[in-house]
């Protein structure tokens, strides 16, 4: 293949990957603001106003009206998220979102996507009993859905019905495994099917092929032979192998949380260990192992896992001041000054604001202890020199 043809093939491949990612991420709310436009409070408010006008023009109990109500609900949710920090929503937006979802489901009670979005929001608002009702309906409609089983398990855990949550998470883990295996087989079948497809030879052919791909599903239709192998879950656009491995990791972590809540630390440890083993984001999964190791006084494992959490100074992990101070104090007592420094004086800032956790009284106390420890060790700073005064002074 010539250099020019090779270049167009690489361009085509990158474009296909981007196209798949865009298609996966797209939701109804993405229609406004327009693609490429940053979401702000002002343009979201305008989008909500536009959606309201469309709702008023739609037939009273039409499918289009239900779709528009759900779209406006997602816009309200995004607006509420931008107005506050953390996982909460302003009450006014929360009420508006739930009202729109309720109106949409009254028109179209079988629309699983709308019900799932509402249940997810109810969990976020810590309204587990209501979320469980939606989870039960969704699971009854589609028993083999991993997402619906996970939703139901999360709601049960929120309600402290841990034994039931463990059973649901276990079923979801079984489904995730079968999906991953079936998807791996299907991936091989797809590879053989397209092994001899001619690549685009010119820029124009590559662009034409991209346009054709926009109307195709993200994944090939499952082979009848794969579906007929008896997997509880067969390949589909929503269960690619890599996605299922990630989902398995999250499910093991969720089940571990319920085991831990019941006091079964051994089972929790096994689940957390496996979740970290297969996770593509091991530093995040290691947080639970770190905290559990501290509680179990398993010093060697706790130190290893706590250090892994902050390998990249994982900032979202530091949002909980109480937990951050607990880990920082443990590392300091273990003699890991640098590890404790990463918690008490994080040198990465995602924005110009001061995180709430840095004014936590236990973080302040940890900072004072660290200043003394650094002085005793003959050190003057523990952050990276970025050309600004040391943060400890």
Provide an overview of this structure.
By secondary structure, the chain is mainly alpha-helical. Among the domains are: 141-188 and 227-280, Serine Threonine Protein Phosphatase 5, Tetratricopeptide repeat; 289-393, no CATH class. The protein is 67% helix and 0% strand. It has 17 helices and no strands. It is globular and about 70 Å long. The termini are far apart.
Distance between the termini: 61 Å
Structural class: mainly alpha
Total strand segments? 0
Main beta-sheet annotation: none
Mean pLDDT: 81
Order of helices and strands: HHHHHHHHHHHHHHHHH
Query: Can you give the helix content as a percent range?
Result: 55-70%
Radius of gyration: 25 Å
Work out the helix count: 17
> Low-confidence runs (pLDDT<50, min 5 residues)?
1-30, 348-357
Q: What fraction of residues sit in β-strands? A: under 5%
Broad shape: globular
Helices and strands, with pairings:
Elements: H1 3-25, H2 41-57, H3 63-83, H4 91-107, H5 112-124, H6 128-141, H7 146-158, H8 162-193, H9 203-213, H10 224-227, H11 241-261, H12 265-278, H13 282-295, H14 299-309, H15 321-333, H16 337-344, H17 361-376
Compact overview of the structure:
This protein has 393 residues and is an all-alpha fold. The chain has 17 helices and no strands.
Looking at this protein, list some descriptive labels.
Serine Threonine Protein Phosphatase 5, Tetratricopeptide repeat; mainly alpha; single chain; 393 residues
């Amino acid at each position: 293949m010539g250099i020019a043809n090779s270049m167009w093939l690489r361009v085509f491949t990158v474009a296909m990957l981007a196209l798949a990612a865009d298609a996966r991420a797209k939701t109804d709310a993405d229609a406004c603001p327009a693609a490429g436009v940053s979401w702000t409070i002002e343009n979201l408010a305008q989008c909500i106003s536009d959606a309201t006008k469309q709702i008023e023009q739609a037939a009273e109990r039409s499918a289009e009206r239900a779709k528009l109500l759900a779209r406006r609900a997602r816009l309200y949710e995004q607006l509420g998220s931008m107005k506050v920090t953390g996982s909460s929503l302003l009450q006014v937006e929360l009420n508006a979102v739930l009202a729109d979802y309720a109106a949409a489901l009254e028109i179209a009670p079988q629309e699983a996507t709308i019900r799932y979005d509402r249940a997810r929001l109810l969990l976020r608002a810590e309204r587990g009993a209501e979320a469980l009702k939606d989870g039960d309906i969704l699971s009854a409609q589609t028993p083999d859905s991993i997402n619906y089983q996970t939703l139901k398990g999360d709601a049960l855990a929120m309600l402290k019905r841990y034994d039931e949550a463990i059973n649901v998470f276990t079923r979801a883990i079984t489904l995730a495994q079968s999906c991953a295996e079936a998807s791996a087989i299907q991936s091989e079948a797809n590879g053989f099917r397209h092994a001899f497809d001619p690549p685009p030879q010119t820029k124009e052919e590559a662009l034409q092929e991209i346009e054709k791909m926009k109307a195709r599903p993200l994944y090939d239709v499952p082979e009848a032979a794969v579906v007929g192998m008896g997997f509880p879950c067969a390949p589909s656009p929503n269960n690619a192998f890599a996605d299922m491995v990630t989902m398995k990791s999250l499910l093991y972590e969720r089940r571990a949380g319920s085991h831990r809540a019941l006091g079964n630390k051994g089972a929790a440890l096994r689940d957390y260990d496996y979740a970290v083993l297969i996770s593509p984001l091991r530093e995040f999964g290691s947080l639970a192992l770190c905290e559990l190791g501290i509680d179990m006084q398993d010093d060697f494992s706790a130190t290893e896992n706590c250090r892994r959490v902050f390998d990249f100074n994982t900032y979202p992990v530091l949002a909980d001041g109480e937990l951050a101070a607990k880990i920082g104090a443990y590392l300091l007592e273990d003699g890991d000054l640098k590890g404790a420094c990463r918690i008490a004086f994080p040198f990465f800032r995602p924005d110009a604001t001061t995180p709430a956790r840095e004014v936590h009284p236990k973080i302040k106390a940890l900072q004072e202890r660290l200043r003394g420890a650094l002085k005793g060790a003959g050190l003057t700073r523990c952050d990276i020199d970025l050309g600004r005064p040391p943060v400890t002074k």
